[in-house]
Design a protein that fits this description.
- The structure holds 2 protein chains of 2 kinds.
- Chain A is α+β, with helices and mostly antiparallel strands.
- Chain A has 2 helices and 11 strands.
- Chain A folds into 2 domains: about 30 residues; about 120 residues, 3-layer Sandwich (Rieske Iron-sulfur Protein).
- In chain A, strands 1, 2, 3, 4, 9, 10 and 11 form a 7-stranded antiparallel beta sheet that branches. Chain A has a 4-stranded antiparallel beta sheet with strand order 5-6-7-8, with no helix packed on it.
- In chain A, a hairpin with a 5-residue loop joins strand 7 and strand 8.
- The longest helix of chain A is centred in the first third of the chain and has 29 residues.
- By secondary structure, chain B is an all-alpha fold.
- Chain B has 2 domains: about 50 residues, no CATH class; about 210 residues, Cytochrome Bc1 Complex, Chain C, CATH 1.20.810.10.
- Chain B has a two-stranded antiparallel sheet with strand order 1-2.
- In chain B, helix 5 runs antiparallel to helix 7, helix 7 runs antiparallel to helix 8 and helix 8 runs antiparallel to helix 11.
- The chains are: A alpha+beta, B mainly alpha.
- The interface between A and B is medium-sized, with 11 and 15 residues.
């Protein structure tokens, strides 16, 4: 009752009980802890969400595939056998076999092999490439890329799409970019 | 005939005194300027409109009504887009067939056409709106912040177009997104084909590869396939509309706070 009537004169005033207070230093300390915890949670969730967007399992064709025996390819032939499944042309010339990527170096469309004109022609913007992959017309700035190719122990051709060889970097002379037959 | 308005007035008077009417319209029938203003301020839909409107602000010649038309087209796109979602399935197996069915089999086959032409129209009105704002100098203080919000809205409109472009899943869509996403692959440092992509590496292990770069996050795969279709669908229908609406709220709010539409402040 004395608390509600502070104006009542009293010879022995009882001290008004105050709620426990926190001094400035303690408050700042705990708010720093609080904000740090908040930032850690937001940062953690943010990292998790970014990681979530990168799938662990891809339902895509394998990056390495067996392409049959060298005898299955004729000299001077551009084989479209693996074009749909693995995005690769197997080309055999008089001395070697190499694997061309079916990705146009202009903007990434898939060119078509024109047997009569003996060239790759991209339907998007008209880039043209020779059988070797060298570009000669249209906006493509550089030749088609070649994939790593080698013979397995049982003599079968294996194409490894994780390694690419670019002509303009002088990588087509790399022995891993072709198989001699 | 002569007592017809009287009866109507009596009826309205009675109606306005019912508890239902009082609960919904708390200010009652407005009879003077002050009451009219309270009606405006107490109604969620009416309060979106300004209480006062300067005469010059409603001149079509000055604003071309392009901001308002952009918003109107956005509403049309929202309604038609939701209706399209009832038939469209974002999978490699069904997407293209569903788009054809939307035109050939579904009642009101024009719905998809409205959505598509509306999308074209929105890009046009947004650009013209920007052009008008530039030509009338409406980007100047105190409206410079709202200009930035507007640029963000322009980019979001483009992203809506870009993500929507893939959904018909025809040859044009797939290759257009292939070309577009290859640009993401050419991002400096974060794109596998971009400059400095081998900077983020630990010894021989390169962190930015075709299976971990910006393009991969966008497509959910190494090429435009099932993952890309689903990602673009979710972004087109939920992600981007959600963000664009937040920015539109800010944009419209700041139009009011920065001195109303058009005209000198």
């Amino acid at each position: 009752m004395t608390e509600t009537k502070p104006s009542t004169p009293s010879s022995n005033p009882t001290p008004v009980p105050q709620p426990p207070t926190m001094d400035r230093r303690t408050f700042i300390k705990w708010s720093a802890v609080g904000w740090a915890a908040f930032a850690a949670v937001i940062g953690g969730y943010g990292t998790m969400i970014v990681r979530y967007l990168f799938p662990n399992v891809l339902f895509e064709p394998k990056q390495e595939f067996r392409a049959g025996l060298p005898e299955e390819y004729q000299v001077g032939e551009v084989s479209e056998r693996w074009k749909d499944a693995y995005g690769t042309w197997i080309v055999r010339d008089s001395e070697k076999i190499y694997a061309l990527a079916t990705i146009c170096t202009h903007l990434g469309c898939t060119p078509n092999w024109m047997q009569n004109e003996a060239k790759f022609k991209c339907p998007c913007h008209g880039s043209g490439f020779y059988m070797t992959g060298i570009h000669f017309e249209g906006p493509a700035p550089r030749p088609l890329e070649r994939y790593r190719i080698f013979l397995s122990d049982d003599g079968e051709i294996v194409v490894d799409k994780t390694r690419k060889f670019q002509q303009e970097k002088g990588e087509w002379s790399d022995p891993e970019s072709f198989v001699t037959v | 005939m002569s007592d017809q308005p009287n009866a109507l007035a009596k009826f309205l008077d009675w109606l306005s005194k019912t508890q239902v009417a009082k609960a919904i319209f708390r200010t009652g029938i407005p009879k003077n300027r002050r009451q009219r203003m309270t009606v405006m301020l107490n109604n969620v839909f009416l309060h979106l409109h300004p209480v006062r409107l300067p005469k010059h602000a409603v001149k079509i010649k000055y604003t071309w009504c392009m901001g308002g038309l952009s918003f109107f087209v956005f509403l049309v796109l929202t309604v038609t887009g939701i209706l399209l979602m009832f038939y469209y399935r974002p999978t490699v197996e069904y997407a293209y067939g569903d788009i054809v069915d939307l035109r050939e089999q579904v009642p009101l086959g024009i719905m998809r056409e409205i959505h598509r032409w509306g999308a074209h129209l929105m890009v046009i009105t947004v650009w013209l709106h920007m052009f008008r704002v530039f030509m009338t100098g409406s980007y100047k203080p105190p409206r410079e912040f709202n200009w930035i919000i507007g640029v963000v809205l322009l980019v979001l409109t483009m992203l809506m177009s870009f993500t929507g472009y893939l959904l018909p899943w025809d040859q044009l869509a797939i290759w257009a997104i292939t070309v577009g996403s290859n640009m993401a692959g050419a991002t400096p440092i974060l794109g596998a084909a971009g400059p400095g992509s081998n900077l983020l590496a630990l010894g021989d292990v390169n962190f930015v590869t075709s299976a971990s770069d910006a393009r991969f996050a966008m497509l959910g795969g190494r090429f435009v396939g099932e993952g890309a279709l689903l990602r673009f669908y979710v972004l087109h229908c939920i992600g981007l509309p959600f963000i664009i609406m937040i920015f539109m709220i800010i944009h419209f709010w700041r139009v009011r706070k920065d001195g109303g539409i058009s005209g000198p402040v």
